[in-house]
């Protein structure tokens, strides 16, 4: 069996064993396009990328979870930090990755797989995060492609003066009847401007951004700087 065939079989077996974790439309779409997914993960449900990462099928330089974790460690020594991740996904591979080096990581996502279990280092919370939740006890808040959840994260962190790193995505427009954004770029620009303005107004720093090249992730990562 060649390498590509082995990879397809590995993914197919995983899907069959975890079908109850995945929405029916996601399952069918991934199965139908299984040979093409890694050409550009942004065209597929996020859970496809999580599965590839969980199965060790992505090179580090092409893996957004690996690259995002590297960037976090460039900015912070997380050794003794209590970290909150918002929108960890069905398979919280990013949180698992950083929990090996951080003090403790807590992940919020209502879709967390029932096959995933909390540990002493990694606490799984199967619910949505909202902007009114207390961030007391957390040293750093992270979110990678949380879609509309980015608004809640930025609101909460700016209001409660917490350090954050948020990888934006095509979270807007949201499709609501009251949505006034023309496209995703307008939504992203609005999020960036809003957070930066509030940080500067509060005198708690400014907003910076970073882009990761080469890992099928075209959106900016925004983070606060106290300098």
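^ structure tokens above, recovered residues below v
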């Amino acid at each position: 069996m060649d390498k590509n065939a082995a990879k397809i079989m590995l993914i197919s077996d995983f899907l069959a064993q975890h079908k109850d974790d995945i929405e029916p439309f996601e399952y069918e779409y991934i199965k139908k396009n299984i040979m093409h997914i890694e050409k550009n993960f942004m065209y597929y449900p996020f859970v496809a990328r999580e599965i590839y990462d969980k199965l060790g099928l992505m090179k580090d330089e092409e893996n957004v979870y690996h690259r995002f974790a590297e960037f976090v460690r460039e900015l912070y020594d997380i050794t003794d930090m209590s970290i909150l991740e918002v929108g960890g996904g069905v398979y919280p591979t990013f949180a698992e990755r950083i929990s090996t080096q951080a003090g403790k990581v807590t992940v919020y996502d209502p879709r967390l797989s029932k096959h995933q279990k909390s540990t002493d280092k990694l606490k799984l919370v199967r619910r949505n995060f909202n902007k009114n939740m207390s961030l007391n006890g957390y040293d750093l808040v992270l979110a990678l492609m949380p879609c509309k959840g980015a608004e809640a994260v930025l609101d909460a962190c700016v209001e409660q003066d917490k350090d954050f790193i948020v990888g934006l995505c095509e979270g807007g427009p949201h499709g609501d009847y009251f949505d006034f954004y023309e496209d995703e770029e307008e939504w992203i620009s609005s999020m960036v401007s809003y957070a930066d303005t509030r940080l500067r107004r509060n005198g708690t720093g400014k907003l910076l951004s970073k882009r990761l090249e080469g890992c099928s992730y075209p959106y900016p990562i925004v983070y606060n700087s106290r300098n």
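The mean pLDDT is 90.
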